[in-house]
Amino acid sequence: MERGTLIGVIGGTILWLWGAWLNTGDLSIYFDLPSVLITIGGSFASLMICIPFERIKMLRTLFGLAFQNKAFDPSSTIETLITFAEKSRREGVLALEDDVAEVPDPFLKRALQLVVDGTDPEVVKNIMYAEMDQMETRHAQARKIFDDWGYFAPSWGMIGTLIGLIAMLRSMQDVSSIGKNMATALITTLYGAILANHFLLPMSAKLYLWNQYDVIMKEIVLEGVLSIQAGDNPTILREKLNSFLPPAQRPKSEEGK
Predict the structure, then answer these.
(1) How far is CA 239 from CA 123, 126, 128, 249, 250, in A?
(2) What is the pTM of this model?
(3) Residue 192: its pLDDT value, please?
Protein backbone atom coordinates (compact mmCIF):
# COMPACT_ATOMS: atom_id res chain seq x y z
CA MET A 1 0.00 0.00 0.00
CA GLU A 2 1.28 3.48 -0.88
CA ARG A 3 2.18 5.14 2.41
CA GLY A 4 1.79 8.71 1.20
CA THR A 5 -1.87 8.25 0.27
CA LEU A 6 -2.65 6.32 3.45
CA ILE A 7 -0.89 8.81 5.75
CA GLY A 8 -2.43 11.76 3.92
CA VAL A 9 -5.99 10.45 4.14
CA ILE A 10 -5.79 9.32 7.76
CA GLY A 11 -3.57 12.16 8.96
CA GLY A 12 -5.62 14.86 7.24
CA THR A 13 -8.87 13.46 8.64
CA ILE A 14 -7.43 13.34 12.16
CA LEU A 15 -6.10 16.89 11.89
CA TRP A 16 -9.33 18.53 10.76
CA LEU A 17 -11.36 16.52 13.30
CA TRP A 18 -8.88 17.49 16.02
CA GLY A 19 -9.05 21.12 15.02
CA ALA A 20 -12.85 20.99 15.03
CA TRP A 21 -12.86 19.36 18.47
CA LEU A 22 -10.43 21.96 19.89
CA ASN A 23 -12.71 24.67 18.59
CA THR A 24 -15.99 23.35 20.00
CA GLY A 25 -15.29 20.30 22.18
CA ASP A 26 -18.17 18.47 20.48
CA LEU A 27 -17.69 16.65 17.17
CA SER A 28 -21.33 15.56 16.99
CA ILE A 29 -22.33 19.03 15.82
CA TYR A 30 -20.39 18.41 12.60
CA PHE A 31 -22.59 15.47 11.61
CA ASP A 32 -25.80 16.27 9.81
CA LEU A 33 -27.64 13.57 7.84
CA PRO A 34 -29.46 15.96 5.47
CA SER A 35 -26.08 17.50 4.59
CA VAL A 36 -24.65 14.04 3.84
CA LEU A 37 -27.60 13.23 1.57
CA ILE A 38 -27.41 16.55 -0.25
CA THR A 39 -23.64 16.80 -0.71
CA ILE A 40 -22.43 13.23 -1.14
CA GLY A 41 -25.65 11.83 -2.61
CA GLY A 42 -26.28 14.79 -4.89
CA SER A 43 -22.72 15.01 -6.21
CA PHE A 44 -22.64 11.26 -6.87
CA ALA A 45 -25.97 11.52 -8.73
CA SER A 46 -24.47 14.25 -10.92
CA LEU A 47 -21.46 12.04 -11.56
CA MET A 48 -23.78 9.25 -12.72
CA ILE A 49 -25.42 11.66 -15.15
CA CYS A 50 -22.17 12.80 -16.76
CA ILE A 51 -20.47 9.40 -17.27
CA PRO A 52 -21.75 6.02 -18.52
CA PHE A 53 -23.06 3.73 -15.81
CA GLU A 54 -20.49 1.07 -16.66
CA ARG A 55 -17.72 3.46 -15.61
CA ILE A 56 -19.23 3.88 -12.15
CA LYS A 57 -18.03 0.34 -11.51
CA MET A 58 -14.47 1.58 -11.99
CA LEU A 59 -14.59 3.66 -8.79
CA ARG A 60 -13.62 0.77 -6.55
CA THR A 61 -10.64 -0.02 -8.79
CA LEU A 62 -9.61 3.65 -8.97
CA PHE A 63 -9.68 4.06 -5.20
CA GLY A 64 -7.54 0.94 -4.97
CA LEU A 65 -5.05 2.32 -7.51
CA ALA A 66 -4.72 5.55 -5.51
CA PHE A 67 -3.66 3.47 -2.48
CA GLN A 68 -1.51 1.08 -4.51
CA ASN A 69 2.23 1.33 -4.11
CA LYS A 70 3.90 1.94 -7.46
CA ALA A 71 7.62 2.40 -7.01
CA PHE A 72 9.45 4.00 -9.92
CA ASP A 73 12.67 2.06 -10.39
CA PRO A 74 13.36 1.30 -14.06
CA SER A 75 16.91 0.07 -13.44
CA SER A 76 15.92 -3.60 -13.86
CA THR A 77 14.20 -2.81 -17.16
CA ILE A 78 17.29 -0.96 -18.36
CA GLU A 79 19.50 -3.92 -17.41
CA THR A 80 17.15 -6.29 -19.26
CA LEU A 81 17.36 -4.14 -22.38
CA ILE A 82 21.17 -4.00 -22.12
CA THR A 83 21.27 -7.80 -21.87
CA PHE A 84 19.11 -8.10 -24.99
CA ALA A 85 21.31 -5.57 -26.80
CA GLU A 86 24.47 -7.54 -25.98
CA LYS A 87 22.90 -10.80 -27.15
CA SER A 88 21.61 -9.16 -30.31
CA ARG A 89 25.07 -7.78 -31.11
CA ARG A 90 26.65 -11.21 -30.65
CA GLU A 91 24.05 -13.48 -32.28
CA GLY A 92 21.70 -11.23 -34.23
CA VAL A 93 18.19 -9.95 -33.55
CA LEU A 94 16.59 -13.32 -34.35
CA ALA A 95 18.41 -14.80 -31.34
CA LEU A 96 15.97 -12.87 -29.11
CA GLU A 97 13.03 -14.93 -30.32
CA ASP A 98 13.43 -17.43 -27.48
CA ASP A 99 13.54 -14.60 -24.92
CA VAL A 100 10.33 -12.94 -26.08
CA ALA A 101 8.07 -15.59 -24.54
CA GLU A 102 9.70 -15.12 -21.12
CA VAL A 103 9.29 -11.33 -21.00
CA PRO A 104 6.65 -10.45 -18.35
CA ASP A 105 6.02 -6.87 -19.54
CA PRO A 106 3.37 -6.96 -22.33
CA PHE A 107 4.62 -3.68 -23.85
CA LEU A 108 8.24 -4.87 -24.04
CA LYS A 109 7.12 -8.28 -25.25
CA ARG A 110 5.11 -6.82 -28.13
CA ALA A 111 7.86 -4.40 -29.16
CA LEU A 112 10.49 -7.18 -29.18
CA GLN A 113 8.20 -9.46 -31.15
CA LEU A 114 7.77 -6.79 -33.82
CA VAL A 115 11.55 -6.37 -34.04
CA VAL A 116 12.18 -10.13 -34.21
CA ASP A 117 9.56 -10.39 -36.97
CA GLY A 118 11.56 -7.92 -39.03
CA THR A 119 9.09 -5.04 -38.86
CA ASP A 120 10.32 -1.72 -40.21
CA PRO A 121 11.62 0.52 -37.36
CA GLU A 122 9.26 3.35 -38.28
CA VAL A 123 6.30 0.98 -38.19
CA VAL A 124 7.42 -0.38 -34.79
CA LYS A 125 7.67 3.17 -33.49
CA ASN A 126 4.21 4.13 -34.80
CA ILE A 127 2.53 1.01 -33.41
CA MET A 128 4.06 1.34 -29.96
CA TYR A 129 3.45 5.08 -29.71
CA ALA A 130 -0.17 4.47 -30.70
CA GLU A 131 -0.41 1.99 -27.81
CA MET A 132 1.09 4.56 -25.45
CA ASP A 133 -1.39 7.18 -26.62
CA GLN A 134 -4.30 4.82 -26.02
CA MET A 135 -2.97 4.04 -22.54
CA GLU A 136 -2.79 7.74 -21.70
CA THR A 137 -6.32 8.24 -23.03
CA ARG A 138 -7.66 5.44 -20.84
CA HIS A 139 -5.86 6.82 -17.81
CA ALA A 140 -7.17 10.34 -18.48
CA GLN A 141 -10.73 9.05 -18.76
CA ALA A 142 -10.34 7.22 -15.45
CA ARG A 143 -8.93 10.31 -13.71
CA LYS A 144 -11.79 12.39 -15.08
CA ILE A 145 -14.18 10.42 -12.88
CA PHE A 146 -12.43 11.79 -9.78
CA ASP A 147 -12.08 15.24 -11.36
CA ASP A 148 -15.78 15.43 -12.21
CA TRP A 149 -16.88 14.25 -8.78
CA GLY A 150 -14.46 16.71 -7.18
CA TYR A 151 -16.00 19.46 -9.33
CA PHE A 152 -19.59 18.58 -8.37
CA ALA A 153 -19.04 18.13 -4.62
CA PRO A 154 -18.43 21.81 -3.68
CA SER A 155 -21.29 22.86 -5.98
CA TRP A 156 -23.67 20.53 -4.19
CA GLY A 157 -22.34 21.92 -0.92
CA MET A 158 -23.49 25.34 -2.10
CA ILE A 159 -26.85 23.89 -3.12
CA GLY A 160 -27.20 22.52 0.40
CA THR A 161 -26.29 25.95 1.77
CA LEU A 162 -29.06 27.53 -0.28
CA ILE A 163 -31.55 24.89 0.85
CA GLY A 164 -30.66 25.52 4.49
CA LEU A 165 -30.88 29.31 4.12
CA ILE A 166 -34.26 29.12 2.38
CA ALA A 167 -35.59 26.86 5.13
CA MET A 168 -34.20 29.21 7.77
CA LEU A 169 -35.72 32.34 6.20
CA ARG A 170 -39.13 30.70 5.81
CA SER A 171 -39.26 29.79 9.48
CA MET A 172 -37.67 32.82 11.13
CA GLN A 173 -40.62 33.01 13.51
CA ASP A 174 -39.65 29.59 14.89
CA VAL A 175 -36.46 30.38 16.77
CA SER A 176 -35.79 26.72 17.58
CA SER A 177 -35.49 25.80 13.88
CA ILE A 178 -32.97 28.50 12.98
CA GLY A 179 -29.97 26.64 14.39
CA LYS A 180 -30.86 23.37 12.65
CA ASN A 181 -31.41 25.00 9.27
CA MET A 182 -28.26 27.10 9.60
CA ALA A 183 -26.27 23.97 10.43
CA THR A 184 -27.49 22.32 7.25
CA ALA A 185 -26.63 25.48 5.33
CA LEU A 186 -23.02 25.56 6.51
CA ILE A 187 -22.17 21.88 6.99
CA THR A 188 -23.06 21.03 3.38
CA THR A 189 -20.40 23.48 2.21
CA LEU A 190 -17.93 21.90 4.64
CA TYR A 191 -18.72 18.39 3.40
CA GLY A 192 -18.36 19.43 -0.24
CA ALA A 193 -14.99 21.10 0.35
CA ILE A 194 -13.61 18.13 2.32
CA LEU A 195 -14.86 15.54 -0.18
CA ALA A 196 -13.31 17.38 -3.12
CA ASN A 197 -10.05 18.68 -1.65
CA HIS A 198 -9.14 15.92 0.79
CA PHE A 199 -10.19 12.85 -1.20
CA LEU A 200 -11.19 13.17 -4.85
CA LEU A 201 -8.83 15.75 -6.34
CA PRO A 202 -5.70 14.50 -4.49
CA MET A 203 -6.45 10.95 -5.64
CA SER A 204 -6.82 12.18 -9.21
CA ALA A 205 -3.40 13.82 -8.88
CA LYS A 206 -1.93 10.55 -7.58
CA LEU A 207 -3.32 8.67 -10.58
CA TYR A 208 -1.76 11.29 -12.85
CA LEU A 209 1.61 10.65 -11.22
CA TRP A 210 1.22 6.88 -11.74
CA ASN A 211 0.42 7.59 -15.40
CA GLN A 212 3.63 9.61 -15.76
CA TYR A 213 5.61 6.70 -14.33
CA ASP A 214 4.03 4.35 -16.88
CA VAL A 215 4.78 6.73 -19.75
CA ILE A 216 8.46 7.07 -18.80
CA MET A 217 8.84 3.30 -18.44
CA LYS A 218 7.33 2.72 -21.88
CA GLU A 219 9.49 5.41 -23.44
CA ILE A 220 12.57 3.68 -22.00
CA VAL A 221 11.39 0.35 -23.39
CA LEU A 222 10.65 1.74 -26.84
CA GLU A 223 13.94 3.63 -27.06
CA GLY A 224 15.80 0.51 -25.96
CA VAL A 225 14.06 -1.80 -28.43
CA LEU A 226 14.58 0.59 -31.36
CA SER A 227 18.26 0.87 -30.43
CA ILE A 228 18.56 -2.91 -30.31
CA GLN A 229 17.00 -3.10 -33.74
CA ALA A 230 19.44 -0.47 -35.01
CA GLY A 231 22.40 -2.43 -33.57
CA ASP A 232 23.57 0.31 -31.20
CA ASN A 233 26.50 -0.35 -28.91
CA PRO A 234 25.23 -1.51 -25.46
CA THR A 235 27.40 1.09 -23.71
CA ILE A 236 25.87 3.87 -25.80
CA LEU A 237 22.43 2.40 -25.21
CA ARG A 238 22.96 2.47 -21.44
CA GLU A 239 23.86 6.15 -21.54
CA LYS A 240 20.87 6.85 -23.74
CA LEU A 241 18.45 5.08 -21.40
CA ASN A 242 19.99 6.66 -18.30
CA SER A 243 19.09 10.07 -19.72
CA PHE A 244 15.42 9.26 -19.01
CA LEU A 245 16.13 8.97 -15.27
CA PRO A 246 16.41 11.69 -12.64
CA PRO A 247 20.08 12.31 -11.75
CA ALA A 248 19.58 10.81 -8.27
CA GLN A 249 18.49 7.49 -9.79
CA ARG A 250 21.14 7.20 -12.49
CA PRO A 251 23.80 5.60 -10.21
CA LYS A 252 21.42 2.70 -9.58
CA SER A 253 21.39 1.77 -13.23
CA GLU A 254 25.14 2.32 -13.39
CA GLU A 255 25.76 -0.42 -10.79
CA GLY A 256 25.13 -3.12 -13.39
CA LYS A 257 28.04 -1.97 -15.56
Answers:
(1) 25, 24, 22, 13, 10
(2) 0.82
(3) 94
